[in-house]
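quick one, 298 residues, struct below
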Amino acid sequence: MNLVATALDELRDLVRRHGAGDNTSTPIPRVGIHTGIGTTPPLPVIYPTMACFVLQGCKRVTFGSRALEYRGESYMLLSADLPVTGQVIEATARAPYLAISLRLDPAAIAALLIDIPPAQIPTTGPGFGIGALSADLQAPLLRLLRLIDTPADIRVLAPLAERELLYRLLQGPHGPLLRQLTVPGSRLSQVRRAIEWIRSDLSRALRIEALAAHAGMSASSFHRHFKTVTGLSPLQYQKQLRLQEARRLMFAERLEAAEAAYRVGYESPSQFSREFKRLFGATPVEEAEQTKARLVAV
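---
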């Protein structure tokens, strides 16, 4: 058995042993593990700024009109918080879906860039990329995940393993995507500033001119770069975030649909219901009934 196969086998074993459902937090800062058996229906979610390393199985992710698949022995980088539709399309009891996520810390990347020769950064581009989970990435990823079994070592050793992992990503084909995270005047940084402004108050009416000014761009340039990064227009982006947050309020905080809709900025319950069904495949009432039925079945 070669070193690559051995590293992958150990990584898969660690994820299997420590995974407790679809998404499991770990004691390592910003690191999560993800497991699943069986395919899933398309599910709208918000992906944070992160790197996701897939060890086994395959997932299809749709950003706006773009559909991508990333499977075992690959990784996906996200340089902004993006509303996506995710779907596991390959996972069995014998070979379940197994993945590790690392939320990206721009400060850690910036500190690392001090010791790396400068490189040309593209003006703008999609806020995501997919690459191969090569041996030079597997090694620091394995050292990082092994720390779950030795929690006393996490504080000292996790930053070292994360630093090497980030270095390898920076040296890879999507390194420019990570570099953009640390450049205050980059188009990506300007779009991220606008995203933070949108997320700070979802009930606020969105005025493109004001949002563009906040990001430091003209309205036409802002609209173009925002859609390039996220795959959505600013209004589409806000709508998806509103619907996601309303859904969370309904099921996590037990709010009625009308109250949840009002909290995120909807004035028309009927419009909210239509758009909710368009995104999630069921009206708020239908989804609430389905959830109750599942709980009774359990």
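The chain has twelve helices and ten strands.
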